[in-house]
Amino acid sequence: MSIVASQVILHPYVSQALKYGGTNLGRDKLYRTVQYFSRFLAWYLQSRGQNLEATRWTALKNHLALARKLMRLGKPVEHLQAALRVAQTAGDIGEQLATIGRQIGYFGYLAYDTVVWANAVKIINLKPSTSQKVTRVSNQFWLSGILFSIVHGLLKAGRLATDAKKLRFSDDQGEKDLADETQRELKQLTLQKMRADVRYQFIVDVLDIWIPASNLGLVNVNDGIVGLAGLTSSIMGMRAQWIAVNGSK
Predict the structure, then answer these.
(1) What is the pTM of this model?
(2) Burial 158-181 (b: 16+ CB within 10 A, else e)
(3) What is the pLDDT of residues 144-180, one digit of tens each?
(4) What is the residue-wise DSSP string for 169-224?
(5) Distance CA 142, CA 120 (A)
(6) SS3 of residue 141 by DSSP
(7) What angle do helix axes 12-21 and 24-47 make, rounded to 10 degrees?
């Protein structure tokens, strides 16, 4: 029995899960996944008339949302630092501006979100009308950050496609030197990975944009669609963070 327990507890997957959960971003992605699953399930149960069960899942969603706000304290400064670093580096001007816009958007979103959290836990007491305005501005910054991220993805995808085309053209010209051929293959692999990463983030952004757009009343979709969009992008975010922590295997 002890041998079986040891094999389970010391299993590599358990160790990888603990390593993943040991990161703040990993826990946030996990909580976000459960939060949006709860949002979808609460909508589904309510549409079936099971209001009591829906209330329980809604409460879980709200508690996780509040917990995630606490976990993100200090994040606005990280995004502001990232914007300043990008402004100080050389690169494609369009991509630079889009990245700076994205970082400023997320800075504003998380800064106002901190005020929302402080009001929710009664550190400060805002009037209901003021609280609604703060929440609305927070969502406006969030939406702008995602829009800038989408623009950045499109610009970067275009640049990488051009680079890949130039590389293929150079591959068709001149003599086939072994060293040059190896170098070109490495560049092709690097470009393929970068293009795949851009496409992946683009899908995440397209899914996420429905959340602030719905919160602002810009689109008329129910909580089921918003919950599914958030759940899918959260799972994709969890996968990306898992690979970043534990590798692709």
Answers:
(1) 0.89
(2) ebbeebbeeeeeeeeeeeeeeeee
(3) 999 999 999 999 999 999 888 887 776 655 555 656 6
(4) HHHHSS---HHHHHHHHHHHHHHHHHHHHHHHHHHHHHHHTHHHHHHTTSS---HH
(5) 19
(6) helix
(7) 90
